[in-house]
Amino acid sequence: MTEVVKVGILGMAGVLVAVQLRAEKKEYGIYIGVAVGILIFGYALRQFEAVLGQFERLKTYLGAGESYLSVLLKVIGITYICEFSAGICKDAGYGTISEQIEILGKLSVMFAGLPILFAVIEQLQSFMS
């Protein structure tokens, strides 16, 4: 919990500095925003390592369903990277590029989930026959 508070304070401090600098030179505010975003992203990656450890533990219980976890991890990664990239583009004033990144993310998540959909369809067909 204290880690989340630290990240929140870092984010708010970064925004306050960016707002102050944006009044003088807009690009400085963008640079500060990107730098703070990268710092928070780096922290999130460290937290993600802990989550991966728990996924490894979960794999031992799933056995054959292990492939579903890899799809879940891909979807989480795609979502986070696209959200982060789109946010930076939106903050920089490039809303159109931000929207295109979000569309790419949605399509990528859909394609990453197709193997699970096919597995469900195969299960349904095996029950029907």
Write a compact overview of the structure shown:
The chain is mainly α. It has four helices and no strands.
Description:
The structure is a single chain. By secondary structure, the protein is mostly helical. The protein has one domain. The chain has 4 helices and no strands. It has helices at 2-24, 26-62, 66-91, 95-128. The longest helix has 37 residues, at 26-62. The protein is elongated, with a radius of gyration of 20 Å. The mean pLDDT is 84.
Shape: elongated
Helix/strand-derived class?
Answer: mainly alpha
Q: What is Rg?
A: 20 Å
Largest β sheet strand count, sense and barrel closure: none
Mean pLDDT: 84
Number of domains: 1
Question: How far apart are the first and last residues' alpha carbons, in Å?
Answer: 51 Å
Number of strands: 0
Give the uncertain stretches in residue-range form: none
Q: Helix amount, in percent? A: over 70%
